[in-house]
Amino acid sequence: MYRNDVSIWQRYDFILLGAVLALVLFGIMMIASATQNAIDPDLISRVPDQINYAIIGIILMIALTFLDYRILGGLANWIYLINLVLLGLVIVFGVEGDAGAQRWLNIGIRIQPSEIGKIALIICLASFMATRYQQMDKLTTVFKALIYVAIPTALVFVQPNLGMTIIYLVVSATILWSAGLRLRHIGLFVIVGLIALPLVFSQLRPYQISRITSFIDPDSDPDARYNVDQALIAIGSGGITGKGYTIGSQNKGRFLRVRHTDFIYSVIAHEFGMVGALATLSVIGLVIARILRGARYAIDPLGAMICYGVAAMIFFQTVVSIGMNLRLMPVTGLTLPFVSSGGTSLMFTLIGIGLVQSVIVRRRRLTI
């Protein structure tokens, strides 16, 4: 029989909470090391900004635990529309950053709507599919889901933000797969994707093309190769136990660029060695495992698909972030979840964890 009379705290996943908090604190430590002795005001502000966003994110994470995720599912249409408005405002009023990318809105503080959109997409697509998963054998159902995903994804792509675009697609594919996407439909979409690839490639900015070509042929862009070479040197020189916190020459000597964001995993491996790098990866793996456990025991398809979406987001960002540090993937600028500097990214990843906890505390519990 199933019990539904236990309190939220009895069902709360404290292992997941502990792993997340450990990663957040460790991330702040590593950002402090990566920005030590900085003279650039932007770098100096990175640690206090990360702390502030972490505090806000943790408060929202806990608050979302008490909010029934099914209420958000019922508001999915409004969330979807608000998300489209925010992404549209970026195109018109967005703040321009590196390489001309227009990804932020300045509302007193800078926010990145595409980060907000990741969580919005998970809620909205999960809600959309929760009422249609029994019709996944119909091509029309899948086609409607793809149109639903394509609109916010296209708005992110034109910012341009290729890395985030891929995250949207991976998260969407995971939710659709969990809803019962058929293999024959997957094959059809792969063919369509291959046909559309030249068109997509033609819309990429020069710096995005350079990232891809420099990955294929490192000698084509010496500057990009320098960054990755220094990352590999940092990882390799860390050895088993590392050079020590804040004293690694690659980090302290500033040979490693964008070390507080793109290449923070290299700083971890450099200062804490293979032990620290694997420990970080293990804790992120524990977070993903606990989220998937939440999906397994979710009381309904909406809850399960929310968990799968959040797990896919964290997993993919981790793979890409570490992969580009090891020259296994092109440099995309994606953050290492919970660890890399990036306030909006951290806050909304914590919000994602709050959604998962909301699912977990409302699961059915089997009595013995």
Structural description of this entry:
The chain is mainly alpha-helical and 368 residues long. The chain has one domain (2-366). The protein contains 16 helices and five strands. It has a three-stranded antiparallel beta sheet. A two-stranded antiparallel ribbon has the order 1-5. α6 runs parallel beside α8 (139-157), α8 packs antiparallel against α9 (162-178) and α12 crosses α14 (264-296). The chain is globular and about 55 Å long. The mean pLDDT is 87.
Give the overall form.
Answer: globular
Amount of beta strand = under 5%
Radius of gyration: 21 Å
Number of continuous helical runs:
16
Strand order of the largest sheet: 2-3-4
Report the average pLDDT across residues: 87
Main sheet makeup: 3 strands, antiparallel
Low-confidence stretches: none
The count of domains is: 1
Tell me roughly what share of residues is in helical segments: 55-70%
Question: What multimeric state do the chains show?
Answer: single chain
Task: Give the terminus-to-terminus CA distance.
Answer: 8 Å
Q: How many extended strands?
A: 5
The sequence of SSEs as H and E is EHHHHHHEEEHHHHHHHHHHE
Structural category is mainly alpha
